[in-house]
Amino acid sequence: MTKEEMYSQLAKAVEEGEPEDAAALAQQALDSGYDPLACINQGLTVGITRVGESFSSGEAYLPDLILGGEAMKSALAILEPALMDNQEREVVGRVVLGTVKGDLHEIGKTLVGTMLTANGFQVTDLGIDQSAEDFLVAVKETGADILGMSALLTTTMREQQTIINALKEGGLRDQVKVMVGGAPVTQSWAEQIGADGYAEDAISAIDLAYRLIDAPA
After folding, report:
1. Are 114 and 158 within one domain?
2. How far apart are CA 21 and CA 14, in angstroms?
3. What DSSP state is assigned to residue 181?
4. How far is residue 37 from each of residues 4, 67, 206, measured CA to CA in Å?
5. What is the mean pLDDT of residues 117-131?
6. 73 with 129, same domain?
7. Is 147 exposed, middle or buried (0-12, 13-18, 19+ CB in 10 A)?
8. Which of 36, 131, 146, 169 fits a 20 to 30 Å CA distance from 86?
9. pTM of the shown model
């Protein structure tokens, strides 16, 4: 199987929501010596983008989105460790990521975490439905340089404000940069709640993370 065929098959496995197939293909890609980051960017990301577009247009439903996310996660579990193999890279920065309380979406957040890891960041992914206290504890325990919060619902995006307020009350706001993202989130919202930056997708999140800690990309 050529690289292009592998990327296509990985995308298809995610699009069709087949976790076992996605994991098997990821392992096959590594065994064939293919670049894990390219498999993510040109395979998995393409597939999950298609699922997201189909969901937005009404051609796919929430279960399809969840299955696509599970397929992507199963492949990432194989590919992510390989990203760091044989790379004695200095950690660029420490990042805590999470989806805010009341929100169960994690596909975009997971991709951001993967891309940050691939670019030398040490990432602690808290998962979904995380309270302000959960974020504060993680920031303290990890000594995070950046806190990334995702909200995919208009009803939960206000939790981002709550968490920033909690950082201030806990005396941690000056110690960590805050980046926010999610479908309903905008640059103006980020400015309104006092976040340090907004990213609309995984690629822009990487650029933003570098800028926030003033590190060379």
Report:
1. yes
2. 9
3. E
4. 14, 22, 14
5. 88
6. no
7. buried
8. 146
9. 0.68
